[in-house]
Amino acid sequence: MKTGIKEILEKDKHFFGLPNILTFARIFFLPFIVYFLSQATQKGDRIAIGLMLLACVTDFLDGYFARKLKMRSVFGTMLDPLVDKITVAVVMLTLAAHKELPYWFVFIVIGRDISILGASLYVIKTKKFVAESNLLGKFTAASFALVIILYTVNIPIAKDVAIGISLILVPLSLIKYFISHKENIVKQSNVVKEKMSEFIN
Fold this sequence. Notes:
The protein is mainly alpha-helical. Helix content is 84%, strand content 0%. It has one domain (5-200): Four Helix Bundle (Hemerythrin (Met), subunit A) (Up-down Bundle), CATH 1.20.120. The protein has helices at 5-10, 18-38, 42-68, 74-98, 103-127, 135-153, 156-200. 25% of the residues are buried.
């Protein structure tokens, strides 16, 4: 079954560019983050946070170099949020097992991300384009990062407040995401209609 992904990637000139290599590098940090978090020691927590910060730096750099070197990649546009979602899910599950992060919250986060990924794959399959993240989605991702940090260092009141903020942003970001998808589909359809009209005339 064709999903549209193969067709899109075949046209990607920057598939093996530096930004994508940096995105893949974030996966390298993940098993080490999990290992040190699972130690449940202050030293392990500090090392885990340090690795998380390094992962954040590579996350910033892949976007920076994509713009600076004009190497924006369709593959990178799909890969970057996928790596982020995998990282968040794995780290949160580790925190749930070792740092008392509520499992119900983790499943809400994973459910949100699966919904977004499913919608993205549907749009890629049917409309052959990749939608980029919106500002509200980035705020939501930042709230997840805050939850992760606060549960790692174990600051009682602050970590509960961070979960509350995330719970507000999760439904809002989902609504915004699906609205943006609909708007992008309409824009793409209008572009196709304009091109067809020019061709006919």
